[in-house]
Specification:
The chain has 457 residues and is an alpha+beta fold. It has 4 domains: 85 residues, Beta Polymerase, domain 2; 93 residues, Ubiquitin-like (UB roll) (Roll), CATH 3.10.20.30; 86 residues, no CATH class; 75 residues, ACT domain (Alpha-Beta Plaits, 2-Layer Sandwich). The protein has 13 helices and 18 strands. The protein has a 5-stranded mixed sheet, covered by helices on one side. Strands 1-4-3-2 form a 4-stranded mixed sheet. It has a 4-stranded antiparallel sheet with strand order 16-17-15-18, covered by helices on one side. Strand 7 and strand 8 form a beta hairpin. Helix 7 packs across helix 9. The longest helix is centred in the middle third of the chain and has 32 residues. The relative contact order is 0.06. About 5% of the residues have low confidence.
Length: 457
């Protein structure tokens, strides 16, 4: 009453009866008799026998207008169903159905516990408890697949949760969804009775944003596992490139290094395979120049010291999570850049004019020469600072000027520097430093603007 803000006469299960019968057929016959005795309350009938809960619970629930109009809740179930409801899934574990096509509560319980076991083997204790609580205390919705199969999902579940409920592969490769034949965003919450269809692509991969809105344990677990796998593949590829560049500085390559030497170095680093070495290099746990020194023979190192090649790694902007761009200086294509090997994060790209490059002299082995690839198909974040007259509508005017250059604004903040002037900070998306220069030029020509600059640490 306190939690739901209800009066006593609005509580419909103050009086309750549980009827235990011999079989499922008698459950429904008993329901008919009960509804003949007293009128059922609209919207209060639930058939958990035809559509059991995820934990195997089965029963018929109905609420009646009893004597003098007093609400009465009635539960009708078999003895087996009552045993599971009262004592739990482990109390009635053996699979008793003769017909293998019949899905019993015990089978559903085994399926649920198997998914819990899989999560326990790979997840941390905190993540495991979080996932189990989601399934133990659900408020379910029932939706249909295009073939008419019924899926039970927690209330608030999204199309991504539905996709993973159908199959892990469907979830990992989903790109769009249709609800009742109409396209909807993947984050759309599904409702009772809807038919949901998932559109997939072989090239699609789990998106880190999904973790913010999925509600089922299975979806959250598989998204995180997919991201870990994706990050590992990216780390391996980046580590391969880093080691190739480091060996090139010694005038060598992996092809020139003998297999015996590679095995010896792997043994010394306590690694089994080369891919493990690439992965550690990619996430910054080991430094490519040091590994390259171990791989190259002494005479090759001496020769390279006298004639370094000075190669650098090309950045295409598609490396994924293993390459990030420093927020202190927001590097753009066209800028001279350096890469910093950060343990556990991979490479962080900085502009050569960034103040943080002062650390170069302290840790020169962690800085890597980088350059931009020739063709880039993505946009990058740049930060600009605008000093303008403090007048009504000045923010809207500057924002409109930025929009006219086909640049999107990601974030804006306002600081009052002087009584008559205001400082506006924009994070905008641009293709390269040339595009940014055009934006700065457009803003600089505004009559209310005193100064506009690109910020850098």
């Amino acid at each position: 009453m306190r939690d739901k803000n209800l009066a006593l006469n609005e509580i419909v299960d103050v009086f309750g009866f549980r009827l235990i019968v011999d079989d499922v057929d008698t459950c429904y016959r008993t329901l008919g008799i009960v509804h003949q005795l007293y009128k059922p309350m609209p919207g209060r009938f639930k058939d958990y026998i035809a559509i059991p809960r995820v934990n195997g619970y089965q029963s018929l629930h109905t609420t009646l207008f009893g004597p003098n109009g007093i609400p009465i809740e009635v539960q009708i179930r078999t003895r087996d169903m009552d045993l599971i409801a009262e004592a739990g899934v482990a109390s009635h574990w053996q699979y008793k159905a003769v017909d293998s096509s019949v899905i019993t509560p015990q089978a559903r319980a085994r399926e649920w516990l198997q998914s819990i076991s899989e999560m326990q083997s790979a997840a941390s204790s905190e993540e495991f408890m979080e996932n189990v609580k989601v399934d133990l205390f659900p408020d379910k919705v029932y939706v249909f697949t295009p073939r008419g199969d019924i899926l039970r999902l927690p209330r608030g579940a999204t199309c991504v949760d539905f996709a993973y409920a159908v199959h892990t592969s469907i979830g990992n490769h989903c790109v769009a969804a249709k609800i009742d034949r109409r396209l909807v965003p993947l984050r759309t919450q599904i409702k009772n009775g809807q038919t949901v269809e998932i559109v997939t692509s072989k090239r699609a991969q789990p998106n880190a944003v999904w973790v913010n809105f999925v509600v089922t344990a299975k979806a959250r677990y598989n998204v995180r596992q997919g991201l870990k796998s994706l990050r590992r593949n990216e780390a391996i590829e980046l580590g391969r490139r880093l080691l190739t560049q480091a060996l090139a500085n010694f005038g060598s390559s992996m092809r020139k290094v003998s297999r015996a030497r590679v095995k010896s170095v792997l043994r010394e680093l306590k690694l089994r395979k080369t891919v493990e070495l690439y992965e550690q290099l990619g996430v910054g746990e080991r430094l490519a120049p040091l590994v390259a020194q171990m791989l190259v023979q002494e005479d090759d190192r001496e020769q390279a010291d006298g004639n370094p090649t000075g190669t650098s790694i090309a950045i295409a902007g598609t490396e994924g999570m293993i390459v990030s761009y420093a927020r202190c200086c927001h590097p753009l294509p066209g800028d001279a850049i350096m890469g910093y090997m950060s343990s556990g994060r991979g490479i962080v790209i900085h502009r050569n004019v960034c103040g943080n490059l002062s650390q170069y002299s302290k840790q020169p082995h962690k800085w890597i020469p980088m350059h931009w690839a020739e063709e880039l198909e993505r946009e990058f974040v740049a930060e600009i600072r605008v000093e303008a007259e403090h007048k009504p509508g000045v923010l809207a005017e500057v924002a409109a000027r930025i929009a006219n250059t086909d640049s999107n604004i990601e974030q804006v903040s306002i600081d009052e520097t002087e009584e008559d002037f205001v400082q506006l900070r924009f994070n905008i998306l641009v293709k390269d430093s040339v595009s940014l220069s055009q934006v700065l030029k457009k803003i600089r020509n505004m009559k209310n603007v005193r100064r506009v600059i690109r910020t850098c640490a």
